[in-house]
Amino acid sequence: MKLYEFPAYKLSEMLRNKEISSRELTEAVFVRADEVDQKVEAYLSRDREAALKMADAADGMIAAGKNTSRLCGIPVGIKDNISTTGIATTCASKMLENYVPVFNATVADKLEAAGCVFSGKLNMDEFAMGSSTENSYFKTTKNPFNLGCVPGGSSGGSAAAVSSCEAVVALGSDTGGSIRQPSSLCGVVGLKPTYGSVSRYGLVAFASSLDQIGPIGRCVEDVALLQDEIQGHDPMDATSADRSYASLFDGLNDSVAGLKIGIPSEYFGSGVKHEVAEAVMTAVRELEKRGAKAVPISLPSTGYALSAYYIIACAEASSNLARFDGVKYGYRAKDCDGLIDMYEKTRSEGFGREVKRRIMLGTFVLSSGYYDAYYKKAKLLQKRIQQEFSDAFSSVDVIVTPTSPFEAFGIGEKTGDPLSMYAADICTVTVNIAGLPAVSVPCGYSAKGLPYGMQIIGRKFDEQTVLNTALAHQRAFGEFRRPEL
Amino acid sequence: MLINGYEVVVGLEVHAELNTKTKIYCSCRNSFGLEVNTQVCPICLGMPGTLPTLNEKVVEYAIKMGHALNCSINRICKQDRKNYFYPDLPKSYQISQADIPLCHDGYLDVIMDNGDVKRIGVERIHIEEDAGKLLHSDKFEGSLVDFNRCGVPLIEIVSRPDLRSAEEAKAYLETIRSILKYIDISDCKMQEGSIRCDVNVSVHKPGEPFGTRCEMKNVNSFSTVVKGIEFEARRQISELEAGRTIVQETRRWDDQLGESVAMRSKEDAQDYRYFPEPDLLTIVVPEEKVAELKATLPELPNAKIMRYVNDYGIGRYDASMIVDVIEKSEFFEKCIAAGCKSPKILSNWVLGEISKFMNEGTAIEDTKLTPEKMSELVGLIADGKISTAAGKTVFDIIIKEDRDILSIVEEKGLAQVSDESALEAIADEVLAANEKSVADYLGGKTNALGYLVGQCMKLSKGKANPGAMKEIILKKISG
């Protein structure tokens, strides 16, 4: 086994026992990326010198016994919509091609303080809008299991980098499935934490009320480890929850005896590929063998969730992205005739098609005369969906569904049809609408070897039960497959 | 007040910058006049990924104003985004409050120039953030922007259309300003733009429904408010008289032209696409806090004016002049507390000599004048022990030196002569020397009396008590 293939929690022990150094590990990860990233194209930027400096600092902390964090010395990849001081944060957009933040996102600060090494900034759909990473202005990331397929999105770079061992673990962000869906398509584990458990300060906003930063790893333990590092109350984020956060890694337990698993019929019907549903149910039956009990439940408003999601998300996005106007930073069109012309040209040229589509949708649904018909109704629906989940959780401990209704699709296959692309989020958006935690874990492979993912949804702030269920599944399922590159 | 048979209807939207230490959504300093783009941080610059956190002081200040304007308080309310593009607005939206303002449905009693009290409805008070400022100059091409003002907390006070003239609008604004100062939530410096005003004007014939209103922006001083309303009312009346209709529109006051200029019509009205600010939580103010803030309110200027009028017998105009400047009214009340005998005479001194010092920028605390000394001086004048003119001589000394007043009076020989025999001697001398004037008076020229008293004062070198002197002369010549 190569150094870059080890899970973070093992590497953590090796670093603490001084069997390896962070410099050695960082070098190994960079060499791996040097080898395979021309194929996968997961990274938007990597800075070896800066990373080695961080590695040396981590080694210094370990030598001095000041490594209080388990992640000290571990290379972490960061999605390119998370602000990093002095490192370009492009959101994979022409608009921010040359934008370098003067401040760190809270999560980046936390990782730096823990002694993590930044292995680079990862590709994504422009401003996190998309389900395939094809909306990146710079490059299309490939699925490591099949380079002709998409890695999913919007955190496609993060999932592909972890899957191909170009990163040990990575941060993604999830607004409607953007951590879970690419994790599913790339055969890795990705957690969308409870809304409010990870600070959004420094995450370039797509839809403020739905966005959440979360960890991606090759195993449940690594996801727990990274979540431990980034969760916690942040006074800089008013929506961050002020409560105590216990270590998920320390709380990991693979016993599912007595666990009640809700199986919502709405997530296994039309639109979901039969093989995917089968793989998920097979995994559930394995959990039942270990003492869990599956209970059929109903979440009747699910069918409206996608509409509500796209209304709320686009409305917020139209406002959040209004600041990219060419005045202060980022792209500004040339040869403009006055202020309005500058605004129009800058935004027409600086944003890609999907971003513009969503800004227009969002502008429309907030317009006077349409607000009540769209935005207000969507918010009502959000309340109802939240209520349905909360009712369901009075009788079950977790809810299990497919993550993506289908496995990775071919590059270019859905780009001409935005609605079929939006349908990729059908199983994941409700979780954001309800603000719940959910993890995606691999649960099977197609005939062509492409991974399927299972989504485990939990009660608010009950990441522990979600991850424990995932761990039980991981142990029952056996080693997740790694792609051949 | 009617103009050509039309009644003017005015509503005001007053924006007041709050004087909190820090800005509304970040910890930058809230202060005016500092070097361009130095009081800024990633948050108030709206850099990607930054988030606002609400300064609770802003909510407290706004609730205080709500109490002062007799409003109901929405203990539970939210903040909303008002979306529009402009280079001085870095996020391209302003965080404000749309359908649920912090304070609503209050009123303000305004004392008009003629002494009438008029109740003006207050529709709402909400909190919001200020934008930056565009800079234009011959020294550079294009426009530059100063973001220092971004995120300065504002309250917007929206009146009902209850004002009926420019004068009423001015009186309303002056009362608002006075309250803001008394509850110490705004610096109220018009020239620094800390109070700004949008004016809604319509005209109609009494008994008929309200006319179509026009909103006028950029009205940045109280005198412009008066000019603007008068201009706009005349413009609308002449439109109607010419058989045209008023178009609902937003106009801009052009101070140089001295007229309002059309900006945009209702059809072009901006759609601000308000929606709840997802980055901020619902504001929840505990009931006890609302009550506590009410308890901290000082006596408000209107109540103070009425108290001065009723308890001290001071004219309403003088009372409002004293109350208008907190320092004057504080000094006035300290003198009363020190046992001042005549609030009426005291008020003349506060508005005269003491105001002169304050207007020059000297705080009374920085002089040697104490409320006790001032009360003593007023007492001497009230008792006729010294004349007002002599009082001025004493005042000029005790404001600079910590000296005993009576010893000054003695040293300068300022004591008024009220002794009857001494006054009679003076009268006899003057009457003997001015027989013609005596004859004039007796012949009906009453102003000759003043001349005779004046001569007596002159002879006494100003020390004679003029009242007593006059009586003695009258007695002697008509006796």
Q: Strand share of the residues of chain A?
A: 5-15%
Strand order of the biggest β-sheet of chain A: 1-3-2-4-6-5-10-11-9-7-8
Helix fraction bin of chain B: 25-40%
Number of strands of chain A: 11
Which structural class best describes the helix and strand composition of chain A? alpha/beta
Describe it.
- The complex is a heterodimer of chains A (485) and B (479).
- By secondary structure, chain A is an alpha/beta fold.
- Helix content of chain A is 39%, strand content 13%.
- Chain A has 15 helices and eleven strands.
- In chain A, α5 (156-163) packs parallel to α6 (180-186), α9 (302-320) packs across α11 (353-366) and α9 crosses α12 (372-392).
- The longest helix of chain A is centred in the last third of the chain and has 21 residues, at 372-392.
- The model of chain A has no long low-confidence stretch (mean pLDDT 97).
- By secondary structure, chain B is of the alpha+beta class.
- Chain B is 39% helix and 20% strand.
- Chain B contains 15 helices and 17 strands.
- Chain B has helices spanning 56-68, 166-182, 222-241, 287-295, 301-312, 316-324, 326-337, 343-359, 371-382, 388-398, 405-412, 420-433, 435-442, 447-459, 466-478; strands at 2-3, 6-17, 72-73, 76-77, 80-83, 93-96, 103-111, 117-129, 133-135, 144-146, 153-159, 195-204, 214-219, 249-254, 259-265, 275-276, 283-284.
- In chain B, the strands form four sheets. In chain B, strands 1, 2, 3, 7, 8, 11, 12, 13, 14 and 15 form a ten-stranded mixed sheet that branches. Chain B has a three-stranded antiparallel sheet with strand order 6-5-16, with no helix packed on it.
- In chain B, α14 (447-459) crosses α15 (466-478).
- The longest helix of chain B is centred in the middle third of the chain and has 20 residues, at 222-241.
- Classes of the chains: A alpha/beta (485), B alpha+beta (479).
- The interface between A and B is large, with 44 and 28 residues.
